[in-house]
Amino acid sequence: MISKKSLIPLILLLTFSTACLGEKKKEATPAAPAPVEAKTEKTEAAPAPAPAAAPKLATPVDAVKGFFDAVSKEEYDVAWASLTKTSQDKFVTMVAEDEKLDPAKVRDLFVQNQMSIRIGFWRSFRNSSKLDIVAPGASYKVLNEGPELAEVEMTSGDLVLKSKALKEDGQWKMGYVETFLP
Predict the structure, then answer these.
(1) For the whole model, what pTM was predicted?
(2) Which domains occur in the chain, in start order?
(3) Are 174 and 163 in contact (CB under 8 A)?
(4) Distance, CA of 144 to CA of 164 (rounded, Å)
(5) pLDDT tens track, the chain, 182 positions
(6) SS3 at position 130
């Protein structure tokens, strides 16, 4: 029998692989037929929400908790800023390949927290991972910490999840890809 603990990385991996722009675009039904160009302009021109405060990532817990909490609260700009460069690069590559878009354009969508990324990628990621349920009230502790790498344990009810945090440019960052897609 598979334990709940061993299912979590699998669920998060599947969540990541299904959270793409195309999935949500199929669900949206435009009010009136419009040319693709006009629809794209409207989607990309939608203003991003006011940026949340820049995350303070002084500790490994700040990085992991900051990422999970930001996704839970739909503060996707904070979630993006909390990720390692490796994780950001992998998110960009996977979305670009899935959507057949230029990686530079996809990176801009993430950096600018554009509506298409908020709805098509992040919201799907949030809903599939159930972070809106498990992140609030979770407790965090550092299991191992070195100068550049740490392991953080999140506990929420019966759920226990271990994640990696890595130090980049003097700040701790959530190593999502380094944890779940080695």
Answers:
(1) 0.73
(2) 4-15+58-180 (3.10.450)
(3) yes
(4) 10
(5) 434 444 344 344 434 444 444 443 333 333 333 333 333 433 444 444 544 555 688 999 999 999 999 999 999 999 999 999 999 999 999 999 999 999 999 999 999 999 999 999 999 999 999 998 999 999 999 999 999 999 999 999 999 999 999 999 999 999 999 999 86
(6) coil
